[in-house]
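Hello support,

Our group uses your service weekly, and this is the first time we've seen a run hang past the timeout. The protein is GNAT family N-acetyltransferase. I'm not sure whether the cause is the sequence or the server load. Input pasted verbatim:
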Amino acid sequence: MEPNVTVQLRQYKHDDLPEIRQTLIDVHADAYADQMDDPFVQRFPGFVDHWGGNPGFSCLIGWDGSEPAGFAYGAPATAGSEWWREHVTEEPENPSTFSLSELMVRPKWRKTGAAEQLHEALLASRDEALAVLLVDTTHPRVQALYESWQYRKVGERQPFPDSPVYAVMLRSLSPALSRVSTTDG
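Update from on-call engineer: The timeout came from a worker crash unrelated to the input. Re-ran successfully.
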């Protein structure tokens, strides 16, 4: 693939999960082909069902012709229970949050701009004030990529006993919002 290939984006919601579930699982299997023996990686279909079961679920799949190049999905956090709050010292004026659960691009389309295209398009239509995501701490280049997209690390967490330790990354979706103070400094 050449850099800056534009994929055709299609948006899907909660009710579309039966239609797109297998596509998400197939993209994941390709993206993690070398890690499919990891029990945590094998749990991905359950995570798809969990996130897709949220009425606010929003997903974009990038298509290159009839092939899925990648996807991004997430859902709004439940008001008052935004788990990232334990990592900040000051409550933001508007804590409404979109939780970006997955951004995944198949190897053939990596380094083409598809990831940023999916990411920015998914967040562009959000009404929430903030976006949050987790990045495996053993992948500093991925963390640096998100930092280049205006995220900043506010802490670390391991959400499941068998999961990696993740960097908790937060981004303002409104230019008018002031910087959130973090417990990390």
